[in-house]
Amino acid sequence: MENELVRLDALFEMPRRERVLSFLRSNQELLSAVLEAWKEIGSRFPGATQVLDLVDDPEIENYRLLVLYIVTSLPQDDVYARMDRLDEEWWLDREPDVSDQLCFVLRRI
Length: 109
Hints:
This protein is an alpha+beta fold.
């Protein structure tokens, strides 16, 4: 598992690195999904920066969500079409325990 965490460190920007890695150590079922997401997103959003962060839900006590930001300069219409394909071709087939703890957010620059 530590090798996979080192790999994550090389693939993603992580503004709160220790917090993200600690969460993944406690939720190991997410690790393979995050690594797979990097590949799937990279193939659909060429040149995008992928940022991994852990966010506290303000409405649910002690609930944290791993957020993968897809930062891209692709045209807006194209970005939404690519996100729909990501959902249809890959993400919607994930196990609920993974999809309940990991979400994607598009950020256009």
